[in-house]
Amino acid sequence: MQSYRGRQQMLLLCLAGFLAGIFYANFIAKNYVTMTGIFHEYFLNQYTASGIIARDYLIYLLRWRALPFAVLALAGRTRLRKVAAVAALLWTGFSGGILLVAAIMRMGIRGILLCLAGLFPQILFFAAAFAVLCWYLFSAPRTEWNRGKTVFVTVMVTAGIFAEAFLNPEIVQWMMDILA
Known about the structure:
Blueprint: H1 2-28, H2 30-35, H3 41-49, H4 54-75, H5 81-107, H6 109-119, H7 122-139, H8 147-166, H9 168-179
Helix pairs in contact: 1-5, 1-7, 4-7, 4-8, 5-6, 5-7, 6-9, 7-8
């Protein structure tokens, strides 16, 4: 029962962040969201015209994907682990809410499809690693961190980075060709 309640609380935190992101993008930063960003015509044209060098992108992703997981994992070694999990869940939901609103405001249903293409397939790996890490941070000290969790999170983050570097650019390009 405790496990179910903890998962429910994690989901509610993420949903609260998501709703806050939607509210923020619609009412506070509406002009900014509609005028700039990744769904702006100029950015999309630049993306289509430029080729992504997978090796360089991989190095970029190592820093911007592995580092947040490492910081969150290090937070798990402190007394602030639950605060870190709550903050990570709220921020993840908040960012997702802003992204969804920006996609819809700039491109409508095409924006949602482009977002899905931009998240696939790496989201499957990152979400699994994030869930395990946040679950531990959220439920510690009742649960123990072990080698199995370390291997799982490391493999999932690594697989997500490689999927994002080598598979995702092709998927996004394919989706942009379809939506054009």
